[in-house]
Write a structure and sequence with these properties.
- The strands form three sheets. Strands 4, 6, 7, 8, 14, 15, 16, 17 and 18 form a nine-stranded mixed beta sheet that branches. Strands 1, 2, 10, 11, 12, 13, 19 and 20 form an eight-stranded mixed beta sheet that branches.
- The chain has helices at about 20-30, 70-75, 90-100, 105-120, 125-135, 150-165, 175-185, 205-220, 265-270, 330-340, 385-400; strands at about 5-15, 35-40, 55, 85, 140, 145-150, 175, 195, 200-205, 225, 230-235, 240-245, 245-255, 275-285, 295-300, 305-310, 310-320, 350-360, 365-370, 375-380.
- The mean pLDDT is about 95.
- The protein has eleven helices and 20 strands.
- Helix 1 runs parallel beside helix 8 (about 205-220), helix 1 runs parallel beside helix 11 (about 385-400) and helix 5 (about 125-135) packs across helix 11 (about 385-400).
- The chain is an alpha/beta fold and about 425 residues long.
Length: about 425
């Protein structure tokens, strides 16, 4: 039977056009490679586009913690919780959950914090050259980020995390309630204390940033193709074949940066790698009469409030449920109800969104060559911080393709760590 697919050839084929994929493509292009990006959705419609819009260089504290397994039953049963489970999917996640719990041991949590802190400390050096190349400075705003606690108990429980960040060089300062309200006078007087991350900054519509990156990539000769990748395989001549319904892409190297959707490609690339999904939500509320100056996180409630024009994006929650498309209305209502406790003058809900965070049970992304084929580079699993880590991940991917050394240890992110 004759294969009717059109054949195209590039140095590198990048699967996935979200923040990690397009950043990888841009860094590869800067290094002189001919690159194509293969993306199933429209540009700027990735998981990162629906995030809390923060450059979270401080986000080295994983969800994994020694106390979390004991808190899960209460979180699941509560109607006022940022955590939920799709019970029709949970049996499929049992192996992932088993590994997640194993990474909640104190020694493991410290190892994860160390690895994330190093990667996050490099994040801006991977992102800003791309922003400057694409002239996208207008899409960021440097006013820092507030992380607030509404009870003394909640703040005291976070002291060890605050200290862990400080010990690893994160720039922050602890602030009293009075300072919180000087910075954000519209907030209701419900907060006890806070932390201000002064080096953090806000993305003004991350979807637009990804679109800007994509437009620049294409303007510099890159190919951007809307297709669904069916499989990746060896070509028999030390190249990689990326097969779509209508096209066969032949490349010297391929980068898998498809986020949670990489799961369908993994059996032949990485064996039993435990990639799964955390479903995250946001809602947009009218904010014409309620103004924030910067992103504000409410720690105990598990979400951020981020100003975007005349709206505020309320983003957060964790739902275990795979790639199912249906909304869980309780979580949407929770976000709206609780946000209005912090900003009582917020208006009506304008829109809602559901995204799929690619998550590994140890909260660390996968960055490195496939255990089964060194011509295939894996770059996914960034969980809640793909927007922040996209640039540095792309820079690392480019170094791997060039076979040049990276200035820090990549072994914590190795695809081989689960084999």
């Amino acid at each position: 039977m004759t294969d009717s697919r059109e054949k195209k050839q590039y140095d590198v084929a990048v699967i996935g056009g979200g923040m990690v994929g397009i950043s990888s493509a841009l860094w590869l292009q800067k290094s002189g490679y001919s690159v194509c990006v293969i993306e199933r959705n429209s540009s700027g419609n990735s998981t990162a586009s629906g995030s809390a819009c923060t450059f979270a260089d401080y986000a080295c504290i994983p969800i994994n913690s020694p106390s979390l397994p004991f808190k899960v039953p209460a979180l699941v049963l509560s109607k006022d919780s940022p955590f939920a489970i799709k019970w029709n999917y949970i049996y499929r996640m049992l192996p992932w959950l088993g590994q997640f719990v194993s990474h909640c041991r104190p020694k493991e949590v410290t190892r994860i914090i160390d690895a994330l802190a190093i990667l996050l400390s490099k994040a801006e050096s991977g992102l800003m050259p791309l922003i400057e190349d694409t002239g996208a400075q207008d899409l960021i705003q440097r006013r820092g980020c507030l992380y607030l606690y509404n009870t003394e108990k909640g703040y005291e429980a976070a002291i060890s995390d605050i200290q862990a960040r400080q010990e690893r060089g994160v720039s922050l300062c602890e602030i009293e309630a009075g300072e919180v309200y000087e910075m954000e006078p519209e907030l209701a007087k419900v907060f006890y204390k806070g932390v201000f991350f002064d080096k953090s900054f806000q993305f003004l519509y991350p979807g637009k940033l990804i679109e800007r990156f994509t437009e620049h990539f294409v303007s510099q000769g890159g190919a951007y193709v809307h297709e669904h990748v069916e499989t990746i395989e060896n070509s028999g001549d030390d190249n990689v074949r990326v097969l779509c319904a209508n096209t066969e892409f032949v490349a010297k190297k391929s980068v898998v940066a498809a986020g949670a959707h990489a799961l369908s490609l993994l059996p032949s690339l990485a064996g039993k790698m435990p990639l799964d999904t955390e479903r995250g939500y946001h809602i947009m509320l009218n904010a014409q009469t309620s103004v924030l100056n910067r992103p504000v996180g409410w720690a105990e409630k598990g979400f951020y409030m981020t100003p975007l024009g005349d709206q505020v994006r309320i983003a957060g929650t964790v739902e275990l449920g795979g790639l199912q498309k249906g909304y869980t209305n309780n979580l949407l209502d929770y976000l709206e109800r609780t946000a209005k406790k912090a900003l009582p003058d917020l208006g009506q809900r304008q829109s809602e969104w559901l995204g799929f965070r690619p998550s590994m049970p140890d909260a660390l992304p996968v960055i490195g060559c496939s255990p089964h084929n060194r011509n295939i580079i894996l770059a996914f699993g960034h969980q809640h911080i793909g927007l922040t880590l996209g640039g540095i991940t792309g820079k690392i991917v480019s170094s791997i393709v060039k076979e040049s050394e990276v200035s820090f240890d990549l072994s914590p992110f190795s695809p081989k760590r689960f084999s």
